[in-house]
Design a protein that fits this description.
By secondary structure, this protein is α+β, with helices and mostly antiparallel strands. It has ten helices and nine strands. It has a domain of about 190 residues: Gcn5-related N-acetyltransferase (GNAT) (Aminopeptidase, 3-Layer(aba) Sandwich). Helices cover about 25% and strands about 20% of the residues. The chain starts with 6 loop residues before the first strand and ends with a helix.
Length: about 270
Amino acid sequence: MDLSEMSVRAVAVGEEPRFRSLLQEHHYLGALPTMGETVRYVVHRHERWLALAVFSAPALKCGPRDGWIGWDRGVRFHRLHLVSNNSRFLILPGGPRNLGSRALALCARRLWPARFGHELLLLETCVDPARFHGTVYRAANWIEAGLTRGFGRAGKGYREHAEPKRVFLLPLCRDARARLRNAHLEPDLQKGVPKVTLSTEQMTSMPAFFKDPRRVAGRRHALSASPLRRRCPAPAATRRSAKGSTTSPPRSWRGSACASGTGPASRRAGR
């Protein structure tokens, strides 16, 4: 079979049942539910299906990948949409030799659908070393980044399954690593509503643009006062009024040991 005649395309909506059925029948992990931004590809020759591939949301945490990129926790959260996980790859029975690396190369060159509104910079995948050696990924120029620690998602947390996976990465451009760890993300790579960044001067001038929400009695304290003073004002019995007279203690204090002078402190004072 002439591999140059192969091509790749996204699976149509009407073809998804067939796609899922083939994965469920021939892939050891079975079919995969949709997770985040997901694209399903079929590699074919003259409409004969030869291989299937699924690209979906990346792993939230992956030590080998994060170490290769140089991500810290804060940067990773805002860059994950630029990474896609090859969560399923299946060569259908009866396919020609050397089909795997050719199929992966075709999928990597395939443009990311415009409906997601951003490009991709990196592909990742995990290979079970107990079953595979990752030869197909190496032949397609993927980089082996290391082994996972053997944990998997379980509900809202993680559980140890003691089955570390080999992590393979494929940068989709020459400077993918530098762009992924750059402190300032390029505007065309951003997702969602742009976040406003303020300078120190702009932040210190913000009080001038907002109305003081405090009542009149509290406005005599400057906003620059320490947080402890603002949160813990002196008791009402010790505060002075504007005329200099001491205000009466609160109703809840009247008749108490402190207000009547019968408490321990009053007895020690000889009252």
